[in-house]
DNA sequence: ACCTGAACACCGTTCAAGT
DNA sequence: ACCTGAACACCGTTCAAGT
């Protein structure tokens, strides 16, 4: 048929990203495919390759959108709390909520391994670092006597821990069976972390 | 051709699991497929379905083998250390080493989402719980005044944190770039955890 | 210039047919 | 009884051909 410029490149790109997000929430990780995304926006799979290099680049864009949305959730959590301890708890809970309510999209950020030869663009790394920065600040308020490298390390440790609790908790990978209250675990984790952190960092 | 009983069902099963492990280490997660496993052991894909219900069950068996091997690594770490604090550090480092040196196989345990309708057999959950138990004991020695439920929660928190540091560290998902010394992070993480834990648990 | 549709090289899975 | 090979329904990706 060769439909003629009904949509611009940018429009097709945006439509594809949106369609991918819908498919992820309705059919999960396994449901995502170029052919389904294409047909959802009324195009052929081939068209997607006019606009994205390949599926990995589409996924990268979906992940970028996820990071933006996660940023909003975490920003909100910061605004709702005043004390730095409460802010960190809020950030961790916001992360858990986002993971739970957007499970497939959140999983896509971690379970999809990009090919090694594809190195992520700077603007993507910037998004991650911006999120990271939200966590550093409250930590600096709680314990002001550390070096920048120590804050980086402490933030890395704290955030990886929050992430780990979300991952193993939401997937029940530790086989604790029954109802795992990830929220309680996050609470216990952050509080214990701060217990140690407020006294110093090695 | 219909080759006649060259191998028993159990032998084919064992060969397939071993072939899958080899493919994972040589070609990574994406390289694993029923057709490749089958051809690696000199059979047709169809034969695999005489011996496994489907690919997910083969993966389950590979994961079970991974858990067994991980158990040995962690057992060794326990034996090499006497003080419970040192034992926990050793366990965490053993986990990190296993993840690093068997990256694809380790990833398979977490990035492959089993279909929801497939619930894991009891013997698999038992393997996970056995690993879990290795971590509980040292914790009990460090702080003997908690309830069983509190130990369970503390262990869950500690192990999820170790796992999170491994996952985000080995994948560089936090985009800290350069050389991330996951070993240092594990050290800092466990020590800070124990700092809080030795004083109590909420 | 834009898009299609067929093609290629792969998948997981099933099952009639062969020995 | 054991195993194959073809078939089916899917993939990601490319690219000549159509408008």
How does this structure look, described?
Two copies of one chain form a homodimer. Chain A is an all-alpha fold. Chain A has two domains: 1-52, Homeodomain-like (Arc Repressor Mutant, subunit A, Orthogonal Bundle); 64-197, Tetracycline Repressor, domain 2, CATH 1.10.357. Chain A is 73% helix and 0% strand. Chain A is built from nine helices and no strands. Chain A has helices at residues 9-27, 34-40, 45-51, 55-80, 84-101, 103-111, 122-142, 148-171, 182-197. The first copy, chain A, is elongated, with a radius of gyration of 20 Å. Chains A and B meet through helix 6, helix 7, helix 8 and helix 9 of A and helix 6, helix 7, helix 8 and helix 9 of B. Chain A binds a DNA duplex (19 and 19 nucleotides) through helix 3.
Task: Name its key features.
DNA-binding, 202 residues, 73% helix, Tetracycline Repressor, domain 2, homodimer, 9 helices
Within the CATH hierarchy, at the fold level, what is the topology of the largest domain in chain A? Answer: Tetracycline Repressor, domain 2
The CATH architecture of the largest domain in chain A is Orthogonal Bundle
| Rg on CA atoms of chain A, Å | 20 Å
* Measured distance between first and last alpha carbons of chain A: 66 Å
Main sheet specs of chain A = none
E-strand count of chain A: 0
Percentage of residues in strands of chain A: under 5%
Number of helices of chain A: 9
Largest interface (CB < 8 Å) = A-B, 51 and 51 residues
Topology (SSEs and partners):
The structure is a homodimer of 202-residue chains.
Chain A: H1 9-27, H2 34-40, H3 45-51, H4 55-80, H5 84-101, H6 103-111, H7 122-142, H8 148-171, H9 182-197
Helix pairs in contact in A: 1-2, 1-4, 2-3, 4-5, 4-6, 4-7, 5-6, 5-7, 5-8, 5-9, 7-8, 8-9
The first copy, chain A, binds a DNA duplex (19 and 19 nucleotides) through helix 3.
